């Protein structure tokens, strides 16, 4: 057994997936696939092309406006507070970029880009599995407290597409935003904050000085703290755990199976 403890709270999960995963195991073993699945459509050529058509600045302009657009017409400081991991200066730059659409409309556009990508990416999954995946993602999201994150609450309130693949893709992003909001709180709770958390992340795709500067955090950078970063990840699991406890045994099994299959579809393209 692998035991992770933070602030006196332990999350226990096995290193290998079992046929009957606990809530903690289902959460832990699908966290990265859900993250990567979302990253797939956010960085897709079609998403970036749509961002440019709208007059936004590439993937990050759409990322900031599309994710936080669920907040509506608010000041950039509120969008920055909800996003967390992009510097407030960069959020303001993107948020105030002139665009013919409102921020709420940009959120709808971003969800539409997700759904379009998902329809192509998940074409080999049958409708019953996609419906089940969407149902389970929405059940997890419904069980979480809205205070887990502002963007989570906003994305949970968005209307979802009627088709199974589009709905599943958007629903998975709601779960992604749930974890994102929890992780922002955890990063502050362990004393890192967003900038230091990025610097302390060992994922080369989303950590280190290069990634921090991409997200608008200038040098000098905080000293990486791997121990606190692990504490933040474990605390994120603690915050999210109750939502996964809403799933029964069969639902947890199907959740892991279907998320794994959806993520694998990206590698088969």
Structural write-up:
The protein is mainly alpha-helical and 269 residues long. The chain has one domain (22-267). Helices cover 66% and strands 4% of the residues. It has helices at 23-42, 45-53, 58-68, 76-83, 88-95, 103-121, 127-143, 150-157, 164-189, 193-199, 208-214, 226-244, 249-267, and strands spanning 2-6, 9-13. Strands 1-2 form a two-stranded antiparallel sheet. A hairpin with a 2-residue loop joins strand 1 (2-6) and strand 2. Helix 3 (58-68) crosses helix 6. Residues 1-15 have low confidence and may be disordered.
How would you describe this structure in keywords?
globular; two-stranded antiparallel ribbon; single chain; 269 residues; 66% helix; mainly alpha
**Number of H- or I-type helical stretches:** 13
Radius of gyration: 18 Å
Helix share of residues? Answer: 55-70%
How many separate structural domains? 1
Uncertain regions: pLDDT < 50 for 5+ in a row? Answer: 1-15
Quick summary:
The protein has 269 residues and is mostly helical. The chain has helices spanning 23-42, 45-53, 58-68, 76-83, 88-95, 103-121, 127-143, 150-157, 164-189, 193-199, 208-214, 226-244, 249-267, and strands at residues 2-6, 9-13. It has one domain.
